[in-house]
Amino acid sequence: MTIPLADDELARLTALRRDLHAHPELGFEEERTASIVAERLAAAGIAVTRGLGRTGVVGTLTTGPGRAVALRADMDALAMPEVGTPPWASTVPGRMHACGHDGHTTMLLGAAERLARARDFTGTVHFVFQPAEEGRGGAKAMVEDGFFERFPVDAAYGLHNMPGLPVDRIAAVPGPQLASSDSWEVVFTGRGSHGAKPHQGRDAVTAAGHFLTQLSIVTARRVDPLEPAVVSACALEAGDFAALNVIPETVRVGGTARAYSAPVRDLLEEEIGRLAQGVAASFGIRADYTFRRRIPPVVNEPACTDIARAAIAAALGPDAVVPAFPPSTAGDDFAEFSARVPGAYVWLGNGPAEEGALHHNGRYDFNDAAIPAGVRFWEEVVRAELAR
Ligand SMILES: [Zn+2]
Ligand SMILES: [Zn+2]
Questions:
Q1: Angle at the Cα of 111 (from 127 to 387), degrees rounded to 5?
Q2: In the prediction, which pLDDT does 330 show?
Q3: Cystine design at 374: which of 47, 97, 107, 388 (Cβ 3.0–4.6 Å)?
């Protein structure tokens, strides 16, 4: 098993976690957080690259030739007020670490410092401190800035805290973990007319109505019943309540699409568009369709999942491995890494949800009791992955 954290080491990491919690920064604004990360990595003798994906930081530790692995932590907070009142509560109005990324940053730094001291592995580890996970595209920004060209890796690992799962338990499950999160939009363009004379125009409003009532066909009749998928219309725009005798020229409809596999994701993109075009054709109007790919699904590769499980067992004992855990309908842009190299994403137990406060709740606070498990897990992932 990994060497347990010394009391003073744990005290320093806990103080760091609370300091980050008190100073939350939104995506691509993580200047203070990134500076702290960069300083601590450098002090540990780790090579530091700043500014990748704007505020991202990569720490690189090489001990010799061999494989290379990326470990990812996210650094950003959310634009919401903190309702809880811990002594380390947010000092910035309307900003809070409500997803535990303060804990993620702390644990990866702790592991980096220990691995830099131990150097008991052969190969390269890139500690990836990613900005803007909360819907702002931080992982994509790092990839577009040349992450994989500048830091070639054989595998990538991610971690998220999970309230409700006991501390010192980590779930590592092969297959889908988080859904893709994409948005789509259809603009129906007909010919506007007097509301009393619909036959003189081409009615886009009624066409949009048909489209909406048929939308569930995509998931009900086209997607494999054994594959989860969600398509929802969430926005609708047409006409004017000050002109209830005017059939407008255009109707705009938009929504979200979620899937747990690349083929189902492709299918949703194709079928929503096909339906829009088909309905438009039957009404003799035009449909302009766009599907914006935002985040791919996070799908754990089996061999990397085995490595993660071996790491959990080495760090915390075999009983710590949680082999089954339900996937989340949320998304995580860690998928930008694990869609390009084999990877695994694990759920780190964060203990009981205090006052029922789950992620993105104003009373949520990362449980510091989970720090040692997260640090030791990261260390063992490096040893297990690079020994392959
Ligand atoms: Zn979140
Ligand atoms: Zn999160």
A1: 75
A2: 87
A3: 107
Give percent of the chain above pLDDT 70.
100
CA 360 to centroid of ligand 1, rounded, Å: 6
Q: Report the pLDDT value the prediction gives residue 130, as an integer from 0 to 100.
A: 98
For the chain, how many helices (H) and strands (E)?
A: 11, 16
How many Å lie between the centroid of ligand 1 and the Cα of residue 361? 10
How many A from CA of 291 to the centre of ligand 1? 23
Token pair recorded at residue 64: 């010799």
User: What local confidence, expressed as pLDDT, does residue 252 receive?
Assistant: 98
> For residue 250, how far is its CA from the centre of ligand 2 (angstroms)?
38
For tokens 């990134």, name the residue: 34
The neighbour count for residue 117, using CB atoms within 10 Å, is 10
pLDDT for 267: 98
CA of 258 to the centre of ligand 1 (A): 17
Residue 1 CA to ligand 2 center (angstroms) comes to: 28
Using CA atoms, how far apart are residues 57 and 38, in angstroms rounded to an integer? Answer: 7
Which helix (H) or strand (E) segment holds residue 303: the answer is: helix 302-316
Q: What pTM was estimated for this model as a whole?
A: 0.89
Tell how far the Cα of 98 is from the centroid of ligand 1, in angstroms: 7
> Of the bound ligands, which one is closest to the alpha carbon of residue 96?
1
pLDDT under 50: residue ranges of the chain:
none
| Ligand 1 mean position, distance from CA 134 (Å) | 6
> Could you count the other beta carbons within 10 Å of the beta carbon of residue 70?
25
Gap from CA of 176 to ligand 1 centroid (Å): 18
* pLDDT, position 1: 63
Distant-in-sequence, close-in-space partners of 231: CB < 8 Å, separation ≥ 6: 215, 216, 218, 219, 255, 256, 257, 258, 268, 272
Q: Pick the ligand that lies closest to the CA of residue 130.
A: 2
* Residue keyed to tokens 């003189």: 200
How far is it, in rounded angstroms, from Cα 193 to Cα 233? 26
Query: Using one digit for the tens of pLDDT, what is the confidence trace for 363-380?
Result: 999 999 999 999 999 999
